[in-house]
Amino acid sequence: MSVDVYSEKASCERLLSVHRWTDKLLTFRTTRPAGYTFTAGQFARLGLEIDGEIVSRAYSITSAVADDELEYYAIIVPGGKFTTRLDALRPGDTVWVEKLSYGFMTADRFTDGKQLWMLATGTGLGPYLSILQQRDVWEQFEQLVVVHGVRHREELAYADQLEGLRAQAVAQGLPARLHYLRTVTRDPAAADGLLAGRITALLRDGALEQATGLAIGVEQSRFMACGNPEMVTEVREILRERGMTPLRRTGGGQFVTEDYW
Ligand SMILES: Cc1cc2nc3c(=O)[nH]c(=O)nc-3n(C[C@H](O)[C@H](O)[C@H](O)COP(=O)(O)OP(=O)(O)OC[C@H]3O[C@@H](n4cnc5c(N)ncnc54)[C@H](O)[C@@H]3O)c2cc1C
Ligand SMILES: NC(=O)c1ccc[n+]([C@@H]2O[C@H](COP(=O)([O-])OP(=O)(O)OC[C@H]3O[C@@H](n4cnc5c(N)ncnc54)[C@H](OP(=O)(O)O)[C@@H]3O)[C@@H](O)[C@H]2O)c1
Hints:
By secondary structure, the chain is an alpha/beta fold. The protein has two domains: 3-98, Elongation Factor Tu (Ef-tu), domain 3 (Beta Barrel), CATH 2.40.30.10; 107-259, Nucleotide-binding domain of ferredoxin-NADP reductase (FNR) module (Rossmann fold). Helices cover 24% and strands 32% of the residues. The chain has helices spanning 3-6, 81-88, 126-131, 135-140, 159-171, 199-204, 207-212, 229-241; strands spanning 10-20, 25-31, 43-50, 53-60, 69-75, 94-98, 115-121, 143-150, 177-184, 195-196, 221-227, 255-259. The chain has a six-stranded antiparallel sheet, with helices on one face. A six-stranded parallel sheet has the order 10-9-8-7-11-12, with helices on both faces. It is globular. NADP nicotinamide-adenine-dinucleotide phosphate binds next to strand 8, helix 6 and helix 8.
């Protein structure tokens, strides 16, 4: 799309900072368009000008809804059109942010349930970082569970932030307890509290329930799954086998999911 056409629906913002977790994983921040609103768990569409045209991609917003800036957690895909350019950006460079926010994977859509399970592979962790910065979710549920699955342990980004959110919630006397589970699939089995194996295998064989001490069931459990589309599909199948159905606008349902590609 040409810059002229795109500029009607997007706002010209600035890259503020880049934090590199590994050579392929980074957190970046942009200025926030004037009047931009979103619900925790939603994504923005970002545009970069490449060869005179705008290339746009979806990015989950990791920052809190009240933050002055917008933050995102990204992987650089080998040969990827958008991310190759993203990798080369420097603070001060232009990033277009579409004026609307998108997505339905928000915790406020659940009207019941005691446990919120948030399953992520790779950068699919992003939406949960924003959700967990909202006080409401700590009051809405009794148990919050984040399960982050990655290939290698150095890809377990945001561990300190998640531990910090848990400690802050305890200090503030918020009702919910956060269980934060991490699993690696391509490193040797862990001796330091990490799980080993795919999220789907751990869900199927009861390892997630064992690690948290929580029983999964239709009455009490609500699920979000985000990231690798094959993981998301398999999670949906496992949950259906357990009697759960997708969240419906008209009410009912236990899970909501988001595919990243
Ligand atoms: C709703 C939604 C939200 C998204 N949020 C994020 C986000 O917060 N962070 C993020 O990094 N990406 C996110 N993505 C993916 C992102 O929009 C782009 O696909 C990604 O930037 C690659 O673009 P590209 O042009 O560089 O690569 P492309 O040429 O588009 O290459 C696509 C290929 O890269 C791989 N790929 C794409 N995204 C990922 C990923 N996140 N992790 C692992 N492999 C991937 C897949 O194999 C895919 O087929 C999201 C996608 C959707 C649909
Ligand atoms: N060139 C290629 O052929 C190729 C292929 C894949 C990815 N890539 C690139 O390499 C990067 C990988 O990114 P990433 O590691 O964040 O993403 P990822 O490949 O989705 O892996 C993240 C985690 O998800 C797990 N996973 C994958 N498929 C799953 C499934 N069906 N069910 C449950 N868990 C599943 C992985 O386990 P496992 O370790 O068991 O897979 C890993 O622990 C991307 O840039 C991608 O484009 C390249």
